[in-house]
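Bench notes, afternoon.
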Amino acid sequence: MSDAASRTDSDPQASRQKRAIPDLFLLQYLPIVPRGIALDLGAGNGRNSLFLAEHGFEVDAFDRDAESVEKLMRVAQERNLPVRAIRNELTTLTILPKRYSLAVIAWVLMFLRRGERDGLVKMAIRGLVPGGFVYLGVFSTQDPGYALCKEKFEEIEERTFFVPKRKMTMHYFLPEEAKALLGGLDLIAFKEGYEMDIGHGDPHHHGRIEVIARLPKE
């Protein structure tokens, strides 16, 4: 697979792991998010989880990768931060209702099938307390990987492709599709962009969609 093709399963999270910089769109709106317990789905090594724990949140962080979970727990313990890192497939996860003031769903939904994506987001929304927030980040059809996947890989669902070497699926979002996932929530902020990633490998671009939304208060 070409270098460009190998990036079909990369994400902005990977490029910032070394520096532990949280997603800047989330950081921009964090002052209006009530402190409480945060949910981080697909937390990786925990750049968002660790930042949130340093800024007034307890964090439940889930990831499928055992090594990432172990590293996150180790760093959290070293810094005495309130992070619970748990290894779990997102497709089999159970999220407790009305527990979280913030749900971070960043750069993971692209790797799930439609039914899995819809189910996970609905469960995360049910996990919010009234007035709780969701931060959503996904790849858009502006991403160069989209054209590459259309050329090289089988389209198993609309804009969803199977990448055989990685044994994974890859989905690219339209703006209205990303907003629709958060239907019933108040839209706080929306961003669509095409940005250079200089954090890993040769400089390359990603098409990104980011959404901040809030569950109405009861």
